Every structure is written in structure tokens, then in C-alpha cells.
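Re: your question about Polyphosphate polymerase domain-containing protein

S., sorry for the slow reply, the queue was backed up all week. Below is exactly what I fed in.
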Amino acid sequence: MNTISLDGLNEKAAMLERLDNKYILPASSFRPALMKFSEHFDVLEIEGKRAFTYATKYYDDPELRGYYDHHQGRRKRCKVRVREYVDAGFSFLEVKLKDKRKVTVKKRLKVMDPANPLSAEAVDFIEDQYRGIYAEAFGKSLHFVIAMNYERITLVAKDGGERMTIDTSLQFEANDVVRTVQPDMFIIETKSARGNGIADKILRSHHLHPTKSCSKYCIGMASTGSVSRRNRFLPALKRLRLTDAQIA
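Result:
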């Protein structure tokens, strides 16, 4: 594939507001589509690297409303995470929300003190973003609940602002339980303005379709036994073939 720089990606496809589709695919199914992707997408490359390590920590309230709001399919829901871009050496606090159009809205704040990611400034930032979308107070006390690591490859459409990510080597850790995803399984996320971009059309032409309820946070919480209800995420868990996961 042709390459694109980080600056080039940010100019073309920051995609902080977008419609997402997620796919869980084995390498054997995904590989035939790659040639077609190379015609329409460039791959992010930084200092000769094309796959980057992400280390993410998610935060939720004591009742795990972030998880259970998603499990119940509520529109008003909020995910809070601190994502470390390991190769680049910096971190962002990220707040993910859904607006009235069901568009994913992601807001970011650079973490200046990794030892205290939920500083007073960060808490105010979360409150402001939640109030800005839902016109009501967030008002929840957050604590760390799960960590995850994975490798990510990012593709950017040659024309327009569409973006696509390919995540592999996923590992979830919570409550001293570790679950890993088989290395030949990918979580692929397409991000476009209308949710039916070039990547979706290419995948559909190969009879590959989105996987419902495929939040990495929720999958991680369900697979590590951190929640009491997980029916909504069982199809995704079974497709991922997590090692030692008790999902029957």
C-alpha cells in the first residue's frame, strides 16, 4: 500500500464525529479483500512502522453504568478511557458519546500527568462534554475497571475523510483475569460520515457483514467475568475465540 503520514491523516480524516461499523473477521476471510483496499486506501506509517501498540484503560462508575447502558442499548451513554499511544509516547483522555443522530462523538484531552489521568481538569472536561451532548450533568465518580492492549493498523481513504482501523493481538485484563484473542482474528472498524463508506462496500462485496454489539470495552468486561449480564455481547465473544473464555 501507499503510505500516509500522521499529519496527512489528521488533515484528511480525524473523524472525531462519525458513524462506525465493526467487523470481527478471521484472516482467511479478510485477506481476499486487501487487494481491493489497496486501490482506495493509504496506510498510516510513522518512522517506518505501520502497526502501532495501543494501551488503554477504561473507567466506569461503581454501578458500571457505562457498561450496562450499552448492554441495554441506551442512546445516552458515555465511555471514558485513557489511551496510551505507546510508540509515540503520549496519552489522551477520551470521552465517547452518542448524539441524537446516533453519531459517535469523541472528545480528547491530552494527559499531562500519567500518574493522575483523572485530574480535576480531566473530571471537568468529562462533565463539560457530557453536558454539551445531553444537556444534563454527568455527576458520576469514576474508577479504573479494565486494561487492554492491541496492535492497530490504520487505513485512510485516498479520496474523502473515510478511515478504517484493523486491530489484532488483543488482550483484556481485569480483576486478575487475562483474556487474549487468537492472533488470526481481527476487529475491523470502518468510520465514515454516513456509515456506508468505501470500506463497507468492499467488505460487503466479499459477503462480510458487521458484527453487532462489538464494543471492545464491553467485550473485555464480559470476557473477564467483570459483569453479571453479557447476553448482548455473546455473539461477538464467540466469534473472537478468546482463550480460556467461559462464554457457553
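The first strand starts at residue 3 and ends at 4. The chain has a mean pLDDT of 90.

Happy to talk it through on Thursday.
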